[in-house]
Amino acid sequence: MVSSSHEAMHRIFHHDSEMLGRTFHALGLSLPTPDTVSVISGDVTEIRPMERRIDTLLRCETAEGEAYLVLVESQRGVDEDKRYTWTYYLAYLADKYRLPVLLLVICHDRRVATWAAQPFKHGAGAWAALTLRAVVVGPHNVPAILDEEAARDYVPLAVLSALTHAKDADIGAILKTLASALKAMDDPEEAYDLAELTGIGLGDTPADEIWRQMMALDTSFYRSSFSRQLRAEGRAEGHAEGRAEGAAEGRAASLRRVLDIRGIAITEEHGGRLSGCTDLDQLDAWLDRALTATSASEVFDVG
Q1: Could you count the other beta carbons within 10 Å of the beta carbon of residue 1?
Q2: Interstrand relation of 56-61 and 36-40 (parallel, antiparallel or unpaired)
Q3: What percentage of residues in the chain have a pLDDT greater than 70?
């Protein structure tokens, strides 16, 4: 099953038409700069049994009228079978669309990026009938964006930088720069979307917890998408328990998590009120206050 973090690694290229061109330029690649980019179906299943689905397939057209396809794949580990799958994808798409096809592989691990960048030759003996070469985007060639001005210049590329450097030692500084750039964006909804995409793309890594803490401390972000996410997690826990008190326990756990991340200590009395509360509306009200409060009293002692 494809994970949400896997999904986010390639969905950044859905964001707008500039993303591919900016990435090509940042990597110093001599590739046609797309003037328009559109997402097309990545279903390459044939009539018979095996389902095959590309992560993201983009059709690019240059100002001069040249068209080509970019097959975008997220790769989180070394998988020799994937080379055969990619070869199939490229051949199938070239035959179906009669257009040049480029394979773009996104990694956030240097070892995986090195593996993916190696040419894959398929043939008999010394004769290579087919040679697969991917453009690989990863921590080895995507710059670690630590300059706030550079991050603000094009925030999606700063997001890509964070995703590809998720395992780097300086990921905290990279994420801090990205958070600052997101906060400076004119469109708050776009900033929220990119913030969520970053969190999803970081996956189950220490960087994800760093990002969550940053977003929790910046209440303008946390009040929006992250508060909805916490409520959803609380509801899910309640459904799993299958009873009303389970839903309340889920809400209470979300509230404790916000308080802990924001560094707000609660008294024994507040803890008792929280543990004994089964009123979902009251728990939601406390959660909303916790997103901006500076003390436990501002959360629990407001009339």
Answers
A1: 3
A2: antiparallel
A3: 80
